[in-house]
Design goal:
Largest sheet: 5 strands, parallel
Radius of gyration: 25 Å
Strand content: 5-15%
Shape: globular
Number of strands: 5
Strand order of the largest sheet: 3-2-1-4-5
Helix content: 40-55%
Structural class: alpha/beta
Order of helices and strands: HEHEHHEHEHEH
CATH class of the largest domain: Alpha Beta
CATH superfamily of the largest domain: HUPs
């Protein structure tokens, strides 16, 4: 009869090897999957990645509207696009949203984003009286909260058509959530994507900033589909990433 202690030691040794073998197997499978993806992108990558970029961009045929709404974020691009639309006579007013302050803004080390947007609009030839802040109880922390604020304004003023300015990569998610929130109103929403100065739909994967922006946007869109699939009400709460 064998030594029980020796049998236990052998069993423990074998048991300790199983996770390592399992881990090696998973790692090998991941390597194969990654190699397959890289091979696919090597042959078809350009067209696929461009299609991935363009999927997020929604651009409507613009018509005269009651208001141009500039979503917060993208302060280098969105106000300038709004200024161009105003110069074309597409709306008599431009609305800006006051978003959450960053630590640097709280310490007044840098100007607030909305103040920068106002200055850019002024430099674009938009008179100060044509620029308004979107009324809301606090500061916007998400696209969803901006949509709630617009619903309140649409209800109060009876707006019939609003042009929404944001970056292309954000436009599909923005249109989706604005349509959900403003369901039941008579307003028509038109998307006017602003060009991003750093990257676009045809080269987003070639820079770290572009890659992270587009990957994050797909993650945020999936989150919005999950969180806001049921049409929210004007009193719904919820804070989500921009």
């Amino acid at each position: 009869m064998g030594d029980p202690s020796g049998l236990l030691a052998n069993a423990a040794h074998e048991e300790s090897r199983r996770p390592r073998r399992s881990g090696l197997g998973c790692g090998f499978l991941l390597l194969l999957t990654g190699a397959a993806c890289l091979s696919f992108l090597w042959f078809y990558g350009g067209d696929v990645l461009i299609a991935v970029g363009w999927f997020l961009t929604v651009k409507d045929e613009l018509q005269p509207a009651d208001l141009i709404l500039v979503l917060s974020g993208g302060v280098s691009d969105r106000p300038r696009e709004a200024g161009r639309l105003y110069a074309r006579g597409l709306a008599p007013r431009i609305a800006l949203t006051r978003n959450e302050l960053s630590p640097a803004e709280v310490e007044k080390l840098i100007p607030e984003e909305i103040d920068l947007a106002k200055e850019l609009l002024e430099r674009s030839g938009v008179p100060a009286e044509a620029v308004m802040e979107l009324p809301m109880p606090g500061r916007a922390s998400s696209t969803f909260e901006e949509a709630l604020a617009l619903r309140s304004l649409v209800t109060a003023e009876g707006l019939q058509r609003v042009i929404i300015v944001t970056n292309g990569y954000h436009s599909r998610r923005a249109r989706w959530v604005f349509r959900r929130v403003l369901r039941g109103t008579s307003v028509e929403l038109l998307m006017a994507p602003a060009d991003c100065w750093r990257f676009d739909e045809t080269n987003w994967w070639q820079s770290e900033t572009g890659l992270m922006t587009y990957v994050n946007e797909y993650i945020k869109f999936a989150y919005y589909l999950w969180k806001y699939w049921s049409p929210p009400t004007a009193h719904s709460g919820g804070r989500a990433n921009k």
